[in-house]
Structures are given as structure tokens and as C-alpha cells.
Design goal:
Keywords: Signal. InterPro entries: DUF6528 (IPR045383). The protein has about 300 residues and is mostly beta strands. Helices cover about 0% and strands about 50% of the residues.
Length: about 300
């Protein structure tokens, strides 16, 4: 049976079009979200469509300096607001956005925020800032994101990514030369991260951290040298793609990989107009993509 979870609504200036969850096969269409930094928007396309302004399925953007250089996007389902969009920006902001484009909460982690995650059941938010730390935000009321406040800062040099793992009940984070597992303790304003002592060494500065949607026991990560498959039980890393400058790397549940590789061209040498798929590349003229994500609310 085809799995179709709909997220309806529109962001600023977008048509009201549903965002589909991942489909069962790479031969079928599924939706992909990118952070596009030239126009500073989150853009969603059907993978199999021609990519241009008329085929955008959902978009959101802001002219605020704090939202400049959008660096992360992901989707999470909530009981109170339905599907929400989590976003982080190198300009300094991180936040929660509804499918209609309403910003429910904005935090200011500082230090070049690169990633954001939501801890289920307690609605805590964790961000990763490349300045060298993880930031934990706890609410006083799960249904009211405006009550989120910073409750903890955890040192992690080069922090670039965070991901909740419901199978192991840990938060994975990636930084310089390491992927590390943290236990989440407490709730609400007492939410805290505690190092479990479990980690996987990387040869380079860590960058992207995503689930492997084909296997809940695996992660896909990148550092400055390559992309890897991380086994969360064995705590080992295996090279998947020996290539530098991979800024985003994701595996669809069909087994297809998609990735963004920086083209080292000004004005944003860390970006590219192209998202690479095993089934073929997709390019948006003049785009400066940084991250690419499958439109999928599942953690794994």
C-alpha cells in the first residue's frame, strides 16, 4: 500500500499544495526539500518533475537577517499542530514553522546554527551550532512552543547535526571527528542531555547526519572527506562515497541516495544548483542549494 501522509497548507507566497510523505519506491515520485540560499527559501519539489519556479510544491522564506543562509530543514508530526517544519539558519535563528507558513517559535542559538531536532513527547528542541555546542530548549507547556527557553548548552566542537533515534532512545550529534550519542533526561524545563559514552570516530570534520530510511540501525553521515554508513550497534563507520565537500547526504527507503556537493564557486562556494540522485541529477537554474531532505516526518 502506498504511504501518503499529507501536509497541507502554504508558506509565504506558495500555492496550497500537499507535501507527500516518502513513497515506497524510487521509481515512484516523492518530495524533496532543499534550503536554497540565493533567494533564502525552503523549496519543495516532486523528485520527478522538472524543477523551476512553476513546479515548486511548497516554499517558505524570510527577509530577516537571523533567517539568512538557511542551513537545515526537516519535518516532524505533532499532536497539536499537525506536521511542522523545523528550520535552522546560519544567520542565527532556529525555529518551528507550520505548514501554512506561520512561525510558532524562533530561538537564537548563535554560533552559526546548522541543525535542529525536536524530541518527541516532551517537545524539547535541540540545535547544533558550528561554533561548538548543542543548545537544549525546554517548554513549560508542550502545546505552546512560545514557552521554549534555553535550559542547557553542551560543548561539542564543530557541532553540525542532530537526530533523535527512537529505537535506542538517544540523540545523535555530529561534530569534528565524531558522531556521539546523548541520553535525554528529564522533561519540560528540566530536559537535559547526558553523554552516553557511545561514539563513532570520523577522520574529518563532521557535517551532515541523517537516518538511513532502509534500516533503523544505520545512520548516513558526512565529514570533510567522505560520506559514511554508521552502524549504531557496532559503532563503526563504512565509506559510502569517497568524495569531499558533500554537504547533504540522505537515503530514501527505496535504497536510493541523494546528495548535494559544494561546487566551490562564489558567492557561496559551499552550495550547488544541483541535487544528485542515483536515478539522475536535478538542477534548478541559479539555485544555491545547501541541504537536501526527503519530505518525511519519521525519525528513521
Amino acid at each position: 500500500m502506498k504511504r501518503r501522509t499529507l501536509l497541507r497548507g502554504a508558506a509565504v507566497g506558495a500555492a496550497t499544495v500537499p507535501l507527500l510523505a516518502t513513497t515506497a519506491s524510487a521509481s515512484e515520485n516523492y518530495q524533496v526539500a532543499m534550503t536554497e540560499q540565493r533567494t533564502n527559501r525552503i523549496l519543495v519539489f516532486n523528485k520527478d518533475d522538472a524543477w523551476n519556479e512553476s513546479t515548486i510544491k511548497w516554499k517558505w522564506g524570510s527577509t530577516s537577517r537571523g533567517w539568512s543562509n538557511l542551513s537545515d530543514v526537516r519535518f516532524r508530526d505533532t499532536k497539536h499542530f499537525g506536521r511542522v517544519v523545523l528550520a535552522a539558519a546560519s544567520g542565527g535563528y532556529a525555529g518551528i514553522i507550520t505548514s501554512a507558513g506561520k512561525v510558532l517559535w524562533t530561538g537564537e542559538p548563535g554560533g552559526n546554527p546548522h541543525a535542529i531536532e525536536r524530541i518527541p513527547n516532551i517537545a524539547a528542541i535541540v540545535t547544533a551550532s558550528s561554533g561548538g555546542y548543542l543548545n537544549v530548549y525546554g517548554p513549560t507547556k508542550i502545546t505552546d512552543p512560545s514557552t521554549l527557553a534555553k535550559v542547557q548548552t553542551v560543548n561539542l566542537p564543530g557541532a553540525h547535526g542532530v537526530l533523535w533515534d527512537p529505537s535506542l532512545n538517544v540523540l545523535w550529534a555530529i561534530g569534528d571527528y565524531v558522531v556521539r550519542a546523548y541520553q535525554v533526561t528529564g522533561s519540560y524545563r528540566e530536559t537535559r542531555l547526558k553523554d552516553t559514552g557511545k561514539s563513532v570516530a570520523l577522520p574529518g570534520g563532521g557535517h551532515d547526519l541523517q537516518p538511513d530510511y532502509t534500516n533503523p540501525g544505520k545512520l548516513v553521515v558526512t565529514d570533510t572527506k567522505a560520506a559514511y554508513e554508521v552502524d549504531t550497534a557496532a559503532l563503526t563507520a563504512k565509506v559510502l562515497r569517497a568524495e569531499t565537500r558533500i554537504k547533504a547526504f540522505v537515503r530514501h527507503r527505496s535504497g536510493e541516495y541523494l546528495w548535494v556537493r559544494a561546487e566551490n564557486v562564489e558567492p557561496r562556494p559551499w552550495s550547488s544548483p544541483t541535487v544528485h540522485f542515483d536515478s539522475g541529477d536535478k538542477t534548478l537554474a541559479d539555485a544555491q542549494f545547501y541541504k537536501a531532505r526527503i519530505v518525511e516526518a519519521a525519525f528513521e
